[in-house]
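Lab meeting prep.
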Amino acid sequence: MMRGPRGPEGDRGRRGRGFGREDTPAEVKALQEALESDSTPVEEIKSKLDAYRKARQAQEKELEQAQDKLRQILSVRQEATLVMMGMLD
């Protein structure tokens, strides 16, 4: 088996959405830290959860806009391929 620049899987291991990624948004980190402590007040958790949801909605809107731009330059065949791959809706 050939080894990629970052291990046997190449870059594939960095594509997940899990916690602990270097590019984890601040809202995710803040919510995670709040949940790690049993003494975090409920109102603080609610506040951090609201911030997380707003950040996620903004990311989804940005993704939709990028996908729309991409669709403008794709052929129907290319678009269908990307839909089948789960990269476009």
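Slide two material, second protein:
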Amino acid sequence: MTDEVSKLLFDKLDAIEKRINPEFPNWMSVRKCGEYLSLSESTIRKLVLTGKIPFRRLPTTEGGAIRFNRKQVDLWLLSGELKPKVRTRATFLELL
């Protein structure tokens, strides 16, 4: 994905956020990300281990806590890597 396309997608996501009231923070824990995607924590951890979901590790002494940027997760959902519930996908596409 080019920088220009990424910027365009992030701008669209910003516009979407202004129209909805997200109940999830910009940076989510494994638990919050699981709630956001309606997946179990173990499924989220498997996606992390296989590198299929975008995430960041916080620098700590024991490997680092895992955090997920909501915008990156939204883009990942839109990319089709994970097949979310039909209603969720329709909502995202409708807002674009």
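Talking points for slide two:
Residues 22 and 63 are 30 Å apart (CA to CA).
Helices lie at 3-19, 30-37, 41-49, 70-79, 86-95.
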